[in-house]
Write a structure and sequence with these properties.
85 residues; mainly beta; Thrombin, subunit H; 6-stranded antiparallel beta sheet; globular; H/ACA RNA-protein complex protein Gar1; Gar1/Naf1_Cbf5-bd_sf; H/ACA_rnp_Gar1/Naf1; Transl_B-barrel_sf
Length: 85
């Protein structure tokens, strides 16, 4: 029996703000760990999670973007979820 790892985009939240220091704030639907890669719907790399903060049941994520020009307030963001199959 062989197993393979399949990668699938997992929706994690919506961009709600860009700070003066160019950090992006995301209203999270699910928790992610600092260091996680954040992607757009089409799989383009947007940035990396630097902090998770706020209430446990309604957290926010702070992301350092790769290119601030790629960030659109209101857009959904994703991370890669690895699944064994």
């Amino acid at each position: 029996m062989t197993t393979s790892k399949k990668k699938q985009l997992q929706k994690i939240g919506k961009i709600i703000n860009i700070s003066k220091s160019n950090l992006v704030t995301i209203k999270a639907y699910s928790l992610v760990k600092p260091g996680s890669r954040i992607l757009s719907k089409n799989g383009n790399y947007l940035g990396i999670v630097v902090d998770v903060f706020g209430p446990i049941h309604s957290p926010y994520i702070s992301v350092k973007p790769e290119n601030i020009k790629d960030i659109v307030i209101g857009s959904e963001v994703y991370t890669i979820e690895k699944r064994n199959q």
